[in-house]
Amino acid sequence: ATGLHRVPKALSSMYFYDDAGSRLFQQIMQLPEYYPTRAEFAIFREHGPAIAAALSPADGGAFSLVELGAGDGAKTKLLLRELLHNGSAFTYAPVDISAGAMTGLVVALAQELPSLRVVPVVADYATALTQLRTRPGSKAVLFLGSNIGNFHPVERLDFLRQLATPLAPADRLLIGFDLQKDPRRICAAYDDAQGVTAAFNLNLLTRLNRELGADFDLAHWQHYTDYSPLNGAVRSFLVSTCVQQVHIEALDETFDFTAWEVIHTENSYKFTLPQIEALAAEAGLRVVTH
Predict the structure, then answer these.
(1) How far apart are CA 260 and CA 282, in angstroms?
(2) In 165-222, which residue ranges form alpha helices assigned H by DSSP?
(3) How many CB atoms lie within 10 A of CB 250?
């Protein structure tokens, strides 16, 4: 409710990922316009041995490989294979808010990598980070898919500080940052020709209808994005195409929308290497390599 009382109205992007949202995002990652997944795959394929070495403890001891927002784990499987091939003693702890996505991942890993030790965690990041504090031994944490870009700058710094707190000086953290590039290429990635990204954004309203008894009429809503090369932010919106009222039963509240009023649903920030260095320093982290 808080977000819908704001000006402009806003909904948190964490609500994208019910099971339907997770499935739609898997489709987005396959789209020709959506370059981040392919770029990350290429990095894991080309630099797998170097990444595995960088994540392994210097003394060759056992460690936990904790992945925040594991999804289907497709990219991570390249790394897991590399670590298993090296004979590394590690346990894989995937973290995801979607129980459906996690079940699929655990089943796939049992079939594809039967020797892998897996301890799945179905939780939000905050809960997972708290659990991380109590996990014994050396840790390597993965936060891939340029998900760091979805945080507001203040929240981003706060999140990285929270993430750094349970880590010992020798622990490792691997983050996927999407670098600034051709603005047209970035715009296309968040507004694909097939309309899958639009369906993903609109699924947020379907979820509110189902879970909170809202009566959003999806025929009167559109997906819209913009990108600013000045601050590196892609912003996603749901746009009301007419004057309308929406009642949300669970809140016992009715919200008024004017024609072309927006609900801001997500930011996706793009970075430069100097920004990443500065961000790490502020969060009490150190960039070892990129």
Answers:
(1) 39
(2) 183-189, 196-212
(3) 11
Q: How many CA atoms lie within 13 A of 270 on its CB side?
A: 22
Alpha-carbon 269 to chain mean position: 12
Pick the closest to residue 285 from 92, 150, 179, 148 (CA basis): 148
Cα(262)–Cα(10) distance, rounded to whole angstroms? Answer: 8
Of 45, 82, 67, which Cα lies nearest the Cα of 140? Answer: 67
With beta carbons less than 8 A apart as the criterion, state whether 141 and 171 touch.
yes
Q: Terminus-to-terminus CA distance in the chain, angstroms?
A: 40
Amino acid at site 186: I
- CA neighbor of 148 nearest in space, from 167, 176, 123: 176
Cα–Cα dist 15/13, whole Å: 5
Q: Are 146 and 176 in contact (CB under 8 A)?
A: yes
Tens-digit pLDDT profile for residues 81-90? 999 998 989 9
Task: Give the single-character DSSP code of 266.
Answer: E
E-assigned strand segments in 168-277: 172-175, 221-228, 233-240, 244-248, 253-257, 262-269
R_g of the chain computed on alpha carbons: 20
pLDDT at 71 over 80: no
Q: What is the pLDDT of residues 137-151, one digit of tens each?
A: 899 999 998 889 999
Q: CA–CA separation, 236 vs 39, rounded Å?
A: 22
- DSSP state, residue 137: S
Three-state SS at 207: helix
